[in-house]
Design goal:
single chain, 451 residues, alpha/beta, Rossmann fold, Fumarate Reductase Iron-sulfur Protein, Chain B, domain 2, 3 domains, six-stranded parallel beta sheet, four-stranded mixed beta sheet
């Protein structure tokens, strides 16, 4: 709450993210123009994800069968700790001292960089935005654009402090500097780690979408490639990419298609000159089956992590990504985090919403996000996580609004004093309330000559 209050009043922060979201909003119509019927495309994508999630066990087993047939190895990890221990085991087997990784929210979820650092393994972010955040010791600010809250001046100052570069470097010069340093790491690294935008069930492969080429370098240069992905990323067929790739590009960055779209189907095959000698795919649960088991919240597993709901959310645009205190911020983060972690501890995220429905309106796969936020609130109450004072307050409110005479009791002056002075918490972050001299009920009766 305190972080949110401070960020909401930070006009410089708001200026930066509104500038960057404004650029996204200006490019979005160009991406949407490629669809003859955008409504139909989103509906078909939702139905495809529905089919995949409803048959998730079979989809993943089919993926494993096809992937292992080409020499790949699949590891099923129920928790973040299991995934981390498997990665450490692989790294130790390969005598790994340096690891390169492309952008992956799942690795942020399991705190991979911190874990590897504790085990004396250098983990280098190769996505430019993630690289900036790693230099600054920060987590990603946004699902798609990790350093959205930083201006070019901020980045130049950071590079000067951490890398000893000229503080007046242009964005192009900063990019070239990062590229020069990262190219050395690709050749040094024994292990490369990527996420997966999609798990392709029928051919046993993963699809990686990016704009910088760092994902391809991370999985092609090192001798060992590890993919870490949530089990919900599965799609039934490679043909589905013809729908999902343009949707992800449009709603993620406003592009018609991202610059690099790669299908990786296993380690280097006989006769091939490129690719890793070994490839692992770690299928991570980490609370996802909790969502799967709930028929009402299961829909949130359709998410393709395009970040459109963050860009549209008035709350996110005011308080930013870090104030959520969790890996996945914005509306989708508020929906899934209480189920991935602990509902009692994280139920407050579902209340940090205006319920305007803008997130649902812009979702690439038509997830009813604002309804799921309400469902989280409902479940928290049903499971008894509401505090005693909150229960009493709502009980009093219910009694009041169901008895007109009780609502009319007391003068407007008394009501103003109770709300604005006695109930301190109400106006701490709100303007004062001033009740009218006559209630609507009184005015209606007078107008209609009712006693």
């Amino acid at each position: 709450m305190e972080k949110s209050r401070l960020k909401a009043a930070d006009l410089e922060h708001r200026k930066k993210i509104n500038f960057n979201i404004g650029k996204y909003n200006s490019s979005l119509p160009k991406g949407k123009a490629q669809f003859d019927d955008l409504h139909l495309a989103r509906e078909r994508a939702k139905n495809t994800k529905w089919r995949a999630i409803e048959t998730l066990d079979r989809m993943l087993e089919r993926f494993e069968l096809a992937f292992t047939a080409r020499g790949g190895k699949v590891i099923w990890a129920e928790t973040a700790e299991e995934a981390l221990q498997e990665i450490l085991r692989i790294c130790k087997e390969k005598n790994c001292k340096t690891l390169v990784k492309s952008k992956s929210m799942v690795t942020e979820e399991i705190k991979l960089n911190h874990f590897l650092e504790e085990n004396q393994i250098e983990s280098v972010e190769t996505d430019l935005g993630e690289y900036i955040q790693q230099l600054d010791g920060e987590t990603p600010y946004h699902i798609v654009t990790p350093a959205m809250h930083k201006s070019k001046e901020d980045v130049a100052k950071l590079f000067a402090e951490k890398l000893g570069t000229n503080p007046n470097m242009t964005p192009e010069e900063l990019t070239l500097e990062a590229r020069r340093r990262l190219r050395e790491k690709y050749t040094e690294a024994e292990v490369g780690v990527t996420g997966a935008n999609f798990i392709i069930s029928d051919i046993g492969a993963v699809a990686v979408t990016e704009n910088e080429g760092n994902g391809r370098l991370s999985c092609a240069w090192p001798k060992t490639h590890i993919v870490i992905t949530g089990i919900e990323k599965v799609i039934p067929s490679m043909q589905d990419l013809g729908l999902f790739w343009p949707l992800l590009a449009t709603f993620g960055t406003g592009q018609q298609v991202t610059v690099y779209n790669t299908i990786v189907a296993g380690p280097r095959q006989p006769g091939e000159t490129d690719g890793p000698e070994e490839m692992y795919v770690i299928l991570l649960d980490n609370g996802r089956t909790n969502i799967l088991a709930n028929p009402k919240t299961r829909e949130s597993l359709y998410c393709i992590r395009c970040g459109a709901c963050l860009n549209a959310c008035p709350v996110y645009k005011n308080i930013g990504g870090h104030t959520y205190g969790t890996t996945y911020s914005g509306p989708i983060g508020s929906v899934i985090t209480p189920h991935l972690k602990d509902l009692d501890e994280w139920k407050h995220l579902s209340h940090a919403s205006s319920l305007c429905g803008n997130c649902t309106e812009v979702c690439a796969v038509k997830i009813n996000l604002h309804e799921l936020l309400l469902e989280n609130r409902h479940e928290a109450v049903e499971e008894g996580y509401a505090g005693w004072s909150e229960k009493m307050a709502w009980k009093g409110w219910r009694l009041g609004v169901t008895h007109r005479k009780w609502m009319n009791m007391g003068s407007p002056r008394l009501k103003n004093w109770v709300v604005n002075s006695l109930l301190k918490g109400w106006n701490e972050h709100r303007g004062s309330i001033h009740f009218p001299a006559k209630s609507f009920n009184q005015q209606w009766r007078e107008k209609n000559n009712r006693s």
